[in-house]
Design a protein that fits this description.
Radius of gyration: 27 Å
Shape: globular
CATH superfamily of the largest domain: ATP-grasp fold, B domain
Low-confidence stretches: 1-11, 74-81, 498-525
Number of strands: 38
CATH topology of the largest domain: D-amino Acid Aminotransferase, Chain A, domain 1
CATH architecture of the largest domain: 2-Layer Sandwich
Distance between the termini: 72 Å
Largest sheet: 10 strands, antiparallel
Structural class: alpha+beta
Amino acid sequence: MRQNLAENRGESSPRALVLGPPGVSRRIAADLEAEGIRALLPGDLGLDVPLPTSPGAEAKLRVALSAFADPRLGGRSLASTSESYIHPGVSPWADRPELSRIGQEMGLAVVAPPPKVLSLFANKLSFLAEADRQGLPHLVLSFEPVQSLRETERLIEELPTDSPVVLKSLRGSAGGVGVRVVQDTDELRRALPLWIDQLRLNFGEAMFFVERYLEGARRVVQPFCRLPDGHLEFFPTLDASLTHRSRKIIEFCPSQGIEEAEPAMRAAAASFLESCGYLGVGCLEFLVEGERFHLIEGLARLNTGYHLWERVAGTRAIAWQLAAHTERGRQLAPGRKPERQWACGVAVRLYAEDALRQLPQPGMVLEVPERTRWSEPGARGSAGEAELDLAVAGGQEVPPRSDGFLGSLWVGGPTRERAQELALQVLSEVWIAGSLQTNERYVAEILSHPWVRQGVFHAGFVDEEFIPELGPPPELARAAVALCRALAEGGGGIPAPQARGARVLSMIGLGRGGARGAKAVEIPEPEARWFCGDRWIQDADPAALSWDGPPRTWEQGGRPGVSGWILLGAETKRRLRLCAFPEGESRWVVRLGGWVMPVRRRAPRPAGQAKVFRLSALVKGRVRAILYRKGAEVPGHEALAIVESLQTLVPHALPAKARVIQWHVRAEDEVHWGQDLADVDLLE
């Protein structure tokens, strides 16, 4: 076990400010504390650390770092320390050389590679050009950056290939938004303008390059550490092939099926890292097919999934970083002590999204799991451990301007099969409910797929070959609508909230299935229609609800919600947990078991009124653009409006030609899921 460094030196403890998203930052902070460094997060000190792409970012960063360097900050005694560090974590600043320069101005050491290395890795085209000069195989089709549709079309026409291509931002993937696979020229013309706007939104610029698309390859992440004495330590590889829209959602460690390529891949990596003078912990990403490998990416920082490879390696990534960047850390060389229950590992990333429809779905988190640690100390084949690191808490909002990351699940076992089995078990217990949608059921479907269980998958498997369940079973849809009808009309064994304005009320002691004390909140017109998603539900009877214990009720914005357990099915009596969260007027988000279902009620059209269709918001976010004026005719499948949510631009279109009758929102308005954006008259 690594000892406390401050105790070894007999001097006051150093301190570090850890940047980045709270979930990962808390883990890094805990690891720094274990190394004898007092770790603080910006939120602990009330510091505002801006994004690098925000206006005046460098000036605001200087203010924050100056405040951290000030021993009088917040009345805290911080000046008694001998050293002060900035740990960039996995924040956007971790990829930028400006942080090291500004930190040096403030007298703060930054735990990061040299600025020249950061500059090289920050521009992905320059990074791959350097790899090309050193003879590393890659997939770049042209080293000329492009920034418009016309330039891209001309480039693709000149390329000696008719295969799909990959467009990549010079600034990296940023959770998948900086990568776009294009199958043909028609798709390019249709999708590129919106993607270019999305690049500007996330990176402040829209420069990208083109790579050859490689079918059937594995996406492999090779983490490493290079120390000042030239020692290069390779850690177990990650198989990150299971991506959704180029965003990593499931990773396995160590990678399997790359034995033919691994020795040559590591030799090429060692040569590249030595030539560019790398120092610290980072990772290189490759596409691997048989004995061939192609460099596609490099990170000059900890990758978000570093905890998986460090557990399998039996070491601490932070200890290696300190050994590379601090004199204090170099006094004790990091060690490696693998554990049997972490011989193989699986990492799952949880996001606020409707993965089936590929839509971001932020919102309020009402309930989160109480259990976050699992240990199976059984026989050799059944041992395993799991850790759930949540980045959210009950009562917390996942705002539309965040990245939608909810947390990570880390699972270890003596074999990959056991790790996958335990991951599925834990995912069935994970409960994150509120007005948002989450992806754990979708991820569990992928892990359950026979090909994934057998390790037969590739980097395009999820987007190209995986077919998920297309919707909840009819009985779940009926139960979800019955719940919401009971909330709107009274009955169904749901007690009415007793106090207005309270977010969550205490349990109300009703017997199973009882309706005593319930009162009607609103009586809908007989012609009102209820929808679960896009499905019209006609046979949902609140009286058929069978509760297992009394439900809990509350009000959100003056509207009723409920959570508890029900028994589903007259014969099976399947016990399912539920939460029906009021999202707006006549709209709820219902989680029932593993399914999250949007439910809404449509009021009847007044007699004599012409038939009017509504364009409704698909996501919660900000209206970025209104593309057609009132009275304009819009071709079918043409976007009328763009809504920004979770770093994604979501186009809103209709399936047929239409005329805009009236807009209910304006650009820059904040909108909720299901909110009416416009009234339209369909012309076809």
